[in-house]
Amino acid sequence: MTDSDARATAALALDLSPVIDGHNDWAWECRLNRGYSVDGLEGGLRSDTDIARLRAGRVGAQFWSVYVEDTLPGADAVQATLEQIDWVYRLIARYPDDFHLARTAGEVESAQASGRIASLLGAEGAHSLNDSPAVLRMLARLGVRYLTLTHVHNTSWADSGTDVPLHDGLTERGVSYIHELNRLGVLVDLSHVSPATMHAALDATSAPVIFSHSSCRALAPHLRNVPDDVLARLESNGGVLMVTFVPQFLSAAYSDWFDGPRTTPAPPVTVSDVADHVEHARAVAGVAHIGLGGDFDGTDEFPAGLEGVDGYPVLFEELARRGWSAPDLAALAGGNVLRVLRATDAAYLGSSATPPALEL
């Protein structure tokens, strides 16, 4: 396929389905570096994200990560998570022609039809709950549509992939949290968790899961990546792996360099490496079970060609050159995760009419 044909195929795919990205830490970046200001975000920023670049990248919907560090003590983590949610609400109010709050698949489609970027919320790490199902229920009412079960460290009921395991996956209370997430229509996000937690959650859930920002362990054996025996379960579960662009999750050579003294230049990581992970996930899980979760503004470096949110079309052109059709690229861009949202929307909208699966 010529470069011209690849560009045309990528453009058609993004017309069929704009990008729905699973994870962006712009709110956290603005907490750290802008005092939570929502002014001056139109373009030309040093961050990976701004409005002009989102438009250039054909981003039609974004799960904004309402992340806080898991070293914050319980109630402080809850407060900081609410501050993150408030930032997203203020972003939408400040730029109403560009953003629209979305909680359901229908609201995503309505925002896109009006030319705005659908803004969804995802809470990264159950430490944000202070082990309170009531907090979870209130976050759901504020629009949070996924919960990452852990971050870097274990919670009291789930093992992280980057901590010493304590629970062999999930405790009994952790299983009850999965049931409550299912009842609420809040997606179970298995990025950051251990393989044992992945399997336990897949055993417990009655709804599709997501990995909001992870890649494939078969290609890069990082603890944050997903083993093939887990990927193979997504077809029966209906879930989606959203491939991330973090270099140490894409390349073993880069990961070794990153964890070492860094006295030599970093090994190159490019859009081709991302495409390799996307193709591996398709081969193992199936084309209906893949998506994208760039993790922009969540790490310092990104692959060449994907340095910011304007880079998505470059990835789609690379995959088109590898023979991907426009419909398959559209499924990757957003069609698959939109299906997962739609499958859980009824639970999300109706949860107030059903009794909690987990009380205080």
Automatic annotation (TrEMBL):
GO terms for molecular function: metallodipeptidase activity. Gene3D superfamilies: Metal-dependent hydrolases (3.20.20.140). One of its GO terms (biological process) is proteolysis. PANTHER family: DIPEPTIDASE, MICROSOMAL DIPEPTIDASE. This is Membrane dipeptidase.
